């Protein structure tokens, strides 16, 4: 490995061991960034890759623990001279089934990761991002935050939480010069899609994790002027159309369309 001789831009990715986090990490490495891939399970996909020394930093992160967030960020930024240019707030899980049959412990588990964990990540990364001009945070929302989805109700609700947090922080952090965005794709071929939800049967799983990562890396590293103005970013034509129709439709129409598609 060739040792890095100058400071490259740095991105911290939660849930980087697999799926969309892994694919985004790979694309950011291709761009020459220093990447932190942190997850509750070990990051192993990098074995055999030809990387510069210090370009990829991996570590453990339980997003449910704020102390773990602080430790992970100290660890990563120790390799980047204390700098952090971007944060991909990606880690998330899913619980399926009608809410009457969902395990209360699983509901708590999902909420702790998808809601509390995302908030902890934002809070922990803020002081690092604030120090860097032009910094950015991108969080993983979902097209299920367009209108609440049956059979994945708690997951869908958690993505509304991410959407709301993103909108609030896009205003709150503007004075700090931090761009704030989220991604809201339809189903992609990841572990999240390995559930029994009617929307999978009606809409299909047409996206690859790399398709979502393409949008993530663009918003993180190379946004157009229009990208910088948009808070919520779709991935496929279908989710963009559904989002646009939803934005200009009354609730009764949105509910009817959702019922026809997945209800």
> What topology, given as strand order, has the largest sheet?
3-2-1-4-5-6-7
General shape = globular
Q: CATH homologous superfamily?
A: NAD(P)-binding Rossmann-like Domain
Number of domains in the coordinates?
1
Radius of gyration: 18 Å
What is the straight-line distance between the termini? 53 Å
Helix/strand structural class: alpha/beta
DSSP helix fraction: 40-55%
State the total count of DSSP E strands.
Answer: 7
Low-confidence stretches: 1-5
Secondary-structure element string: EHEEHEHEHEHHHEHH
Major sheet size, sense and barrel closure: 7 strands, parallel
Assigned CATH class: Alpha Beta
- Residue-averaged pLDDT: 93
CATH fold field value: Rossmann fold
CATH architecture: 3-Layer(aba) Sandwich
Query: What portion of residues belong to β-strands?
Result: 5-15%
Tell me the number of helical segments per DSSP (H or I, 4 or more residues long): 9
GO molecular function: oxidoreductase activity
Keywords: Oxidoreductase
Family: Belongs to the short-chain dehydrogenases/reductases (SDR) family.
Protein name: NADP-dependent 3-hydroxy acid dehydrogenase YdfG
Q: What characteristics describe this protein?
A:
single chain; 263 residues; Rossmann fold; 7-stranded parallel sheet; 7 strands; globular; oxidoreductase activity
Structural description of this entry:
By secondary structure, the protein is of the alpha/beta class. It has a single domain (10-262), classed as Rossmann fold (3-Layer(aba) Sandwich). The chain contains nine helices and seven strands; from the N terminus they run βαββαβαβαβαααβαα. Strands 3-2-1-4-5-6-7 form a seven-stranded parallel sheet, sandwiched between helices. Helix 1 links the parallel strand 1 and strand 2 (34-39). Helix 1 (19-30) packs across helix 6 and helix 3 runs parallel beside helix 4. GO terms for molecular function: oxidoreductase activity. This is NADP-dependent 3-hydroxy acid dehydrogenase YdfG. It holds the Pfam family adh_short. InterPro entries: NAD(P)-bd_dom_sf, Sc_DH/Rdtase_CS, SDR_fam.
């Amino acid at each position: 490995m060739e040792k890095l001789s100058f400071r490259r831009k740095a991105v911290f990715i939660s849930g980087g061991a697999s799926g969309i986090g892994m694919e985004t990490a790979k694309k950011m490495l291709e761009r020459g960034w220093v990447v932190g891939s942190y997850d509750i399970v070990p990051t192993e996909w990098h074995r055999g890759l030809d990387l510069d020394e210090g370009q990829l930093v991996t570590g453990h992160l339980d997003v449910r623990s704020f102390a773990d967030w602080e430790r992970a960020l100290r660890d990563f930024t120790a390799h980047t001279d204390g700098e952090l240019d971007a944060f991909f707030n990606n880690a998330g899980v899913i619980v399926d089934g009608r809410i009457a049959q969902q395990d209360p412990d699983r509901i708590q588990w999902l909420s702790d990761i998808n809601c509390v964990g995302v908030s902890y990540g934002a809070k922990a990364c803020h002081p690092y991002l604030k120090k860097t001009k032009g910094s950015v945070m991108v969080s993983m929302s979902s097209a299920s935050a367009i209108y609440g989805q049956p059979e994945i109700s708690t997951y869908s609700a958690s993505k509304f939480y991410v959407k709301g947090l993103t909108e609030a922080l896009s205003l709150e952090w503007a004075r700090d010069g931090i761009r704030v965005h989220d991604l809201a794709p339809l189903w992609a071929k990841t572990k999240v899609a390995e559930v029994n939800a009617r929307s999978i049967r009606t809409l299909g799983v047409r996206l690859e994790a790399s398709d979502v990562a393409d949008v993530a890396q663009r918003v993180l590293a190379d946004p157009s002027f229009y990208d910088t103005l948009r808070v919520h970013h779709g991935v496929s034509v279908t989710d963009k159309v559904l989002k646009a129709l939803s934005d200009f439709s009354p609730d009764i129409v949105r509910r009817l369309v959702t019922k026809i598609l997945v209800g």
